[in-house]
Design goal:
The chain is 0% helix and 64% strand. By secondary structure, it is mainly β. This is Quercetin dioxygenase-like cupin family protein.
Length: 103
């Protein structure tokens, strides 16, 4: 159980910090509807993403891939990336170092 609130980050998209430490942060993103988007963006943190449920189309530095339950991917530091929800589900992201902007 986490003490962090669920935050709406976009239409049909939520974020909840699950655990944090200055060197590492675990965050769950919920996508409640097909077509919901994680807008293209970049950040200096290295990110790993685990697809807990649902299906997603990810773009990482212009390379597009489709992922589903059990799949993982790595987003390098400063890579422009985002996703589109193909089937509602949940992504679990790990960031190093911690995303202080999420606190």
């Amino acid at each position: 159980m986490t003490d962090f609130p669920v935050i709406e980050t976009g239409e049909n998209v939520t974020r909840q910090v699950l655990a944090d430490h200055p060197d590492l942060m675990l965050v769950a993103f919920g996508f409640g509807k097909t077509g919901a988007e994680g807008a293209l963006h970049n950040h200096p943190h290295v990110q790993s993403t685990f697809v807990e449920s649902g299906r997603f189309r990810f773009t990482i530095d212009g390379v597009v891939s489709e992922v589903g339950p059990g799949d993982t991917l790595i987003v390098p530091s400063n890579a422009v990336h985002g996703c589109v929800c193909l089937e509602p589900g949940r992504l679990v992201d790990c960031f190093t170092p911690r995303r202080d902007d999420f606190l």
